[in-house]
Design brief:
Helix content is 49%, strand content 14%. The chain is of the alpha+beta class. It has three domains: 176 residues, no CATH class; 143 residues, no CATH class; 153 residues, 2-Layer Sandwich (Heat Shock Protein 90), CATH 3.30.565.10. The strands form five sheets. The protein has a five-stranded mixed sheet with strand order 10-12-13-15-14. Helix 8 packs antiparallel against helix 9 and helix 10 packs across helix 12. The chain starts with 10 loop residues before the first helix and ends in a 5-residue tail after the last strand.
Length: 606
């Protein structure tokens, strides 16, 4: 692969682009969130300010409705200013100060926030409602005396009990004038349905105080009613305005029966005008209300001015630059070991280059794994060279012998007698054995070993292996015996198992001196079957024991191939046992013999 990488595909460039996009998205999201949060906060603040303004106006209107002048309002103004944190000032129409929460001499705002006039208001209401006309707290001549109030309360309680007997629950409240008012439990007006038993005609009848005030009102409205074509002597209908539970006041209308809506509206306008004239002496004069921020400082508002935009852009640029710089430093540290790995991997295979492990993160783990892979490759290369050398030596010795005997026979130096032919046959057998062993190992390496498993009794297997090597054991003066604990069964290929045990027995006979013993044993252990080949031979050194299953390995390098074997028998045993799902172990003590143990999954008779 070429060492040059396009700029757009380099890891450093990709990390920089990714971090830049993340920074831009983060800044944009933060800016959007800040704007949305600030806007929402400003809206909530404006809503709270509007609610506070409504409360201030309502309190001052209530003060004007219950006082004939503004004397003493300063205490209320200062209290409202302390609660709302805003400046509150009251002046006359010509801006003569009446009360001000700010220090004397502080300039007033440019324009008034509202006019405080309880006789002409459209702002006093509960939150979310609007009420036009006169503030219901303006009572004037309609305020009931204590005696009248007690009498009306008694009538209201009697009517309340009467309604309760008919299954209608009413609540008793009082209007600012002191008149009792009956409402349903949800705060609405008295129900339109009135049981006959409860219709006594007394509860809504005006008291003497109210009658006197109504007579004066009718007198004041006489001229206006005459001008709109109505009889000024027509009695007035008295009732309660139930627009809002907290703002009930008296309502008055002429008791005309058949007149049009336009005439009714004209008559009501006459009565409203006359009522304002009637109530005017009882209320404070109209005043101008000025509102400002705390200490008369204008409230701060979110303003995306040019300067603010420059700040946002500058901050975003700074964040972007810092992000790119940090990413560049981190990416460089990440890319440096990767480049070292790339350069090491591109070196010639025979150099086996390692890379330094400078970190303990994922890159360091990758470098360590690369070094381990290099070491494994170096070991495999050394094993491959040794194997090639061993195979060449294994094949060269018998081939040299065969060639030598054939050449001297061809030259007539030696006659081709039966002894010569037997020697040549032995050398051919050595060649065949090496080739067969190599083929078995090649099949094992390629997972191409073919097994034909069947139910197999271990005692019969051991007897067959012992019988096959009885002649060789007798010739070597070694006793060959078998030992079976119970009747363990295997599910295995009988030919391959005889081959594996045969290799072990041949190796044991080769290393056991005359008079020694080689024992084949079988027993069950934890659901497995253990096959053991034990000898009383020379044993294996502790340093050599881990290598007994390596190919072409021999503890005595000087031992001849004819007496020491090909060095492939034990590796073949390991592969055959692994193909059956088992394992092989070797234990030895120098001078006391060796034990080779095959652990295989147990089987059952079929």
């Amino acid at each position: 692969m070429s060492g040059w990488i396009p700029l757009r595909k380099r890891l450093l460039v990709r990390l920089l682009i990714a971090s830049g996009l993340i920074a831009v998205c983060s800044v944009a999201a933060t800016a959007w969130l800040a704007v949305e949060t600030t806007t929402r906060a400003l809206r909530e603040e404006q809503g709270q300010v509007l609610a506070d303004d409504m409360d201030v106006l309502a309190r001052l209107s209530g003060y004007a409705a219950t006082h004939a002048d503004w004397r003493g309002v300063g205490t209320t103004v200062r209290e409202l200013s302390a609660r709302t944190g805003r400046r509150i000032a009251l002046t006359t129409a010509d801006r003569t100060p009446l009360a001000d929460s700010a220090p004397r001499g502080t300039a007033l705002p440019v324009s008034a926030a509202a006019t405080v006039d309880p006789l002409r208001t459209d702002t006093f209401s509960e939150r979310g409602a609007q009420l036009s006309g006169t503030d219901p707290r303006v009572v004037g001549p309609y305020r009931l005396t204590a005696v009248e109030r007690t009498k009306v309360d008694a009538l209201a309680e009697a009517r309340q009990r009467c309604f309760a007997r008919h299954g209608i629950d009413l609540s008793l409240t009082h209007a600012p004038s002191g008149r009792a008012v009956l409402t349903e439990t949800d705060g609405t007006a008295e129900p339109g349905y009135v049981p006959d038993e409860c219709a006594d005609g007394l509860f809504n009848t005006p008291t003497p105080t109210e009658e006197k005030a109504l007579t004066a009102l009718q007198k004041d409205a006489r001229g206006c009613l005459t001008r709109v074509g109505l009889d000024p002597r027509t009695p007035l209908f008295f009732g309660m305005d139930d627009t809002s539970p907290a703002s009930r006041g008296p309502s008055y209308a002429p008791a005309f029966v058949k007149v049009g809506d336009r005439t009714k509206r004209a008559a009501q306008a006459c009565l409203d005008t006359a009522r304002r004239v009637q109530l005017d002496p009882y209320v404070a004069p109209a005043a101008q209300l000025f509102l400002g921020g705390g200490g008369d400082t204008p409230a701060v508002r979110f303003d995306m001015s040019t300067g603010n935009k420059a700040k946002v852009v500058g901050t975003a640029g700074l964040v972007f630059a810092v992000t790119v710089a940090v990413t560049a430093v981190v990416a460089t540290r990440l890319v440096r070991p990767l480049r070292a790995l790339t350069e090491a991997a591109q070196q010639p295979p025979e150099r086996h280059v390692r890379v330094p492990v400078t970190t303990r993160d994922e890159t360091g783990i990758l470098a360590a794994a690369f070094n381990e892979l290099t070491e494994r490759r170096e070991r495999l290369e050394a094993q491959r060279k040794a194997m090639v050398s061993d195979i060449a030596h294994e094949l060269r010795s018998p081939l040299t012998n065969i060639r030598g005997w054939l050449e001297v026979t061809r030259d007539g130096v030696v006659d081709p007698d039966p002894a010569l032919l037997a020697a040549l046959h032995d050398e051919a057998l050595v060649l065949q054995r090496v080739i067969d062993d190599l083929r078995d190992l090649a099949d094992a390496d390629a997972d191409a070993l073919r097994l034909h498993p069947e139910a197999l009794r271990c005692d019969e297997l051991l007897d067959q292996v012992a019988a096959a090597h009885r002649v060789a054991a007798d010739a070597a003066g070694v006793r060959l015996r078998t030992s079976v604990d119970g009747i363990p069964w295997l599910d295995a290929d009988v030919v391959r198992m005889r081959q594996a045990l045969g290799n072990l027995v041949s190796n044991a006979l080769r290393h056991t001196p005359a008079g020694g013993t080689v024992t084949l044993a079988a027993r069950r252990a934890d659901g497995d079957v253990l096959l053991e080949v034990t000898d009383t031979g020379t044993g294996i050194e502790a340093d050599d024991l881990p290598h007994v299953f390596d190919r072409f390995w021999r503890a005595e390098k000087s031992r001849s191939r004819r007496t020491g074997g090909s060095g492939l028998g034990l590796p073949i045993v390991r592969h055959l046992v692994a193909a059956h799902g088992g394992s092989v172990e070797a234990a030895s003590e120098p001078g006391a013999g060796s034990v080779f143990t095959l652990r295989l999954p147990g089987g059952s008779p079929r």
